[in-house]
Amino acid sequence: MKNELKHIRRLAVFACVVEQGSFAAAGRKLNMGRAKVSEQVALLEEALGVRVLHRSTRKLSLTTDGERLLPHAQGLLQLSQDALASVEQGAEELSGTLRVTCTQDFMQRVLSRFLKGFVRRYPALKLELLVDDQKLDLIEDEVDVALRIGIPADSAMIGRVLCDVEFQLYASCDYLSEHGRPALVSDLKNHRGIDTLDVALNSLSLSDQTGLRRPISLQAMCRTNSPSGILSMVEIGSGIGLLPLYLVRDALERGTVERVLPDWSFGSAKLYLLYPSKKQLARRSRVFMDEFRKWLLETKEGRSFFFTD
What we know:
It is built from ten helices and 13 strands. The protein has 309 residues and is α/β, with parallel strands linked by helices. The chain folds into three domains: 2-87, Winged helix-like DNA-binding domain superfamily/Winged helix DNA-binding domain (Arc Repressor Mutant, subunit A, Orthogonal Bundle), CATH 1.10.10; 95-162 and 269-303, 3-Layer(aba) Sandwich (D-Maltodextrin-Binding Protein, domain 2), CATH 3.40.190; 165-268, D-Maltodextrin-Binding Protein, domain 2, CATH 3.40.190.290. Strands 3, 4, 5, 6, 7, 10, 11, 12 and 13 form a nine-stranded mixed sheet that branches. The protein has a two-stranded antiparallel ribbon with strand order 1-2. Strands 8-9 form a two-stranded antiparallel sheet.
């Protein structure tokens, strides 16, 4: 436990250094000497066995490992702030305007289910939903909370990891009855694929439980610019598509769609909550994020979109 507390302290110092841009500036904010700040980051690197910062006489920059670590360190700080705020502010009524953004398919399939209860609990809160598949400038559009799948590109936002989003191959039961169910990855060459405009299925691969990888040899007979478009084409029997569990969940429950090659997996991406890092976080944003995280990870309904247990 003692070592864990030391790691938490060092992660907090690391996050502050990145936020302030230098050891000296972080020391002023933390009321610590520059040497002590540098020592804490060095001890963190020693414990991890990797460097998290590139140091030069002019500036600091994140290493690849540092970029992976930073969202978790920032999220740890936010969790501690949230815990203190929840006690201090009690059951104060939420008010004002909360601007939330996500993609259309995420809104329709997931967020709308959560919001049904959330808006009833906080009737004085004005909710503005920016539902768009295009990348928004989260700062310019004054977004309070963004839900994003994949590594966040906006360095001005703090990323809080919620869970993994698994992507697998799916097809309609009618399609598989007509064209046969692939038993081997190599069987995919005899089937029709549904691509996105950005990524071709035959440029990707699947892996089994041993880590063995095989290319997805599907030839695309249809292309679309959205995951919802892939699902629609899958459901009408046009071919096999790569889809996240949250999007295909309802069709799986109806028994109209099934997973293809269930012993082989494509992989997953992270689901992030993003929020601005350079201004005080409003309580309405904290409550929204905390309640959405709890619904997603602790309720049967929320878990069913991302977990198969």
